[in-house]
Design brief:
By secondary structure, this protein is mainly alpha-helical. The protein has 3 domains: 37-140; 154-276, no CATH class; 289-328. It has 13 helices and no strands. The protein has helices at residues 2-16, 27-33, 39-65, 73-95, 112-153, 156-159, 161-179, 183-221, 224-228, 230-249, 254-286, 290-307, 318-328. α3 (39-65) runs antiparallel to α4, α4 (73-95) packs antiparallel against α5 and α7 (161-179) runs antiparallel to α8. The longest helix is centred in the middle third of the chain and has 42 residues, at 112-153. It is rod-shaped.
Amino acid sequence: MKKTAVVLAIAALTLSGCKTLDAVPGGLGNLVGTKEVDQAQVQAVYNKAQEAYLSAQSSMQIVATESLSDFDPERIKDANKVWSDLQEEFAELQGKPERAIEKASLFSSNTVADEIMEQSQQITTLVSAAQASKNAIVAVLEPVRAHFAVLDKIDAKKNFEKQYAQLVSRHEELKEMLIEGEQSKVEGYLPDLNNRLHKLEQDAVEKFYLGEVLADLKVLANSDKSDVLPSVFVDAKNAAELAQAFARNNVRQYQDIEAKTLLAQLQVKRINSLFSEHISRKEALKDDAVEVQLLGLEKQIYQLTQKAGLGDLRHLSFTEQLAELNKAN
């Protein structure tokens, strides 16, 4: 009887004694979860995560306002990717703030708040680095950027596609070097780049303003017009060459370039007009209509001499009558 009582007592102790950790449903995590969590602690951790998120948000706003993707596209691409993930995670945390102190995943020791703060810091670091890149690029390469803006106004890309593309490529190479922190090297390469940009600007401004005139002169040089009217052709050629030289030496004095180009254009029109007169007179001789043309010209000069009070000077040659008109004026 006594033995039986002892066995029953031992069994009872075994069944009703302390539980092992393995006996707790869900393991340690659920055991900890059953404890009352300090709400103030949760709120404090959440606030830190929110502060970090807002800092990252401000950084992303800087990306837009300062157009940082134009200066450091790779870093901004990375920042955008992290920002996309961060927005999603923080939206979930806003719905359940208590998750701030939970583990981010089974394989991470970081809490959800830790992950958010870490991602926010990544964004801030990337954007700060992109800003530094922009500052270096603006400080060193802004004159180059301005030069490209000028080239675009005078159709350099359209008329000199290959040279323009080569310069753009070189500009991008120097930007990458600045992003990598090689400012001193870039500054050493600038004189050569600026020289190439200036030469392209000379060619572009000449083509933009004088391209049509110079093309017309090439046609005239290989036509009967330059043979029939050699001195007039020389006048047109000289006017074009003066405009050309002025444009290449004063690439941004656009109004003066336009004025000199206009003079060259007028000389081209002059040779065309005189040649047309020559053809008309030649045709008139073939048609036995010389008298009609001569009388028509005589009448015009006669009206001018009458108006000038010189009387009838038709006994003089046309050249002599015009000379008298010049004296009267």
